[in-house]
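[job 4471] stage=fold_predict status=RUNNING
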Amino acid sequence: MRFYPPLFFQRIWTVGFEKDFRGVEVMVKKSFWNRNYNNSIFGGTIFSASDAFYPVLFFKIFSQKGYSIRAWSKSSEIKYLKPSYFNLYFKLHIDETEINEAEEILNTIGKYTKLHPVEIFDKNGLNVASVMIEVYMRNLNFLEDASDNK
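[job 4471] inference complete, writing structure tokens
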């Protein structure tokens, strides 16, 4: 994902994925390409950095389990807490409980929607942004019982 153009040109770097795509560490490198007129990182870059990773993790986890799914960010809300004058970092992790919950919903309802938090920090550990990503997944192989629609 490091060379995916929307991330690459904003200097959003995937530091590394955890085993089985249960988590990811991301860095936003401050540069000429993503700073605003205050010399801090542009809010759109911070927002873009947080947007894609939960859906990607869920997609990879469930693809490895044999599911055919669609996963994307349905909505997001960001709160900018402080200007960010340094490189930024965040880590995401999806635990077994969340995976089991999502799997149960995908198998019984066919569609999963849930909010997931992202906390973004600068190199000094200062929390500069708080994001809530609403992840949507659809099990493409789910067939609703025809009797439920009567």
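[job 4471] summary: The first helix runs from residue 5 to 8.
[job 4471] exit 0
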